[in-house]
Amino acid sequence: MNRPQLHLLACSALVLLAACSSKDQPTAGANADPQAAAKDARRYLSQPLISEIYTADPSAHIWDGKIYVYPSHDIDGTTPEDDLGAHFEMRDYRVLSMDKIGGPVTLHPVALDVSQVPWAEKQMWAPDAARKNDTYFLYFPAKDKQGAFRIGVATSKSPTGPFEPRPEPIKGSFSIDPAVFTDADGRSYMYFGGIWGGQLQRNITGTYDPNGSKTDLQADDQPALTAKVALLTDDMLEFAEAPRDVVVLDENGKPLLGGDHDRRFFEASWMHKYNGKYYFSYSTGDTHYIVYAIGDSPYGPFKYTGRILEPVEGWTTHHSIVEWDGRWWLFYADSQLSGQTRLRNVKVTELFYNADGTIKTLDPLVRS
Ligand code: FUB
User: Taking the domain 3-351, which CATH number applies?
Assistant: First the structure.
């Protein structure tokens, strides 16, 4: 980690009101003084959407006039922190919904549990969802019994589940962090991948290599490993093609290099469209930024353009971007409630564009 970790036990007034009965639920922490808690809350650009459970990696969608958020559900496991994210031991998914931003948030019951997925063993990481016709699709990464991340899909007639998983992962899938984007022509694409614990570096040949490099051993002067993109089949259940590289170019038209940790892809893909352009955004991982690159096609190439979000409290950063009522919103997560990277909370804040289509950088911490 190359920046100081902020390990404040920051508890908003919100949390002090929350009833806490399980070790997986946020507690008021050491800071039981309401005035101090309110002061701590003011340090953050926005406040947690819920405090009943810990949540991260929010993928937001607008369906039938409501906002649905598909987050990871963080739990307080026993595995020590490591560079591969073994401490992210999530076992199920729960969906959040709201009628408007800033309004009450409903936390729905468990939508899918790892015990229901025949091929999955553990680590239900960042999910996404999509809708086609009258079916909702939940896409999720999990480790299989060999320890390889695969991407599964589960279906439901309700956006909040329960979801019924397919018996096998998507054929040819690997790594983590699926994000499904549906273009104006109705074609849907899955963006995915992550280095280090996300295992992209163990899938270079297309077959999982359990003995491959555990972390990011990319040569500093060679093109960085990229996210992947694949068109989905019409039924949304499989890849319609072999995954392709999502290439991000620098100001000279050259692919970003492995040594460019401030800009190269790490994990947390997201795609959105603005004024006819394709905006591919992602986390830079060990430098903790959410950045973006712009292209003319869902396949890219994309030109690196800038930062969307400065580092949050906690190691990981993962987001989604949606338009709602003519305004744009950034969903993201930090560790405000717990002060611990493994126990995060999702948030939302407004996103603004400049006249030239670039995005104004946000700082999640109020620095005074
Ligand atoms: O939540 C587990 C992993 O941490 C996600 O899959 C990554 O994007 C990072 O947020």
Answer: 2.115.10.20
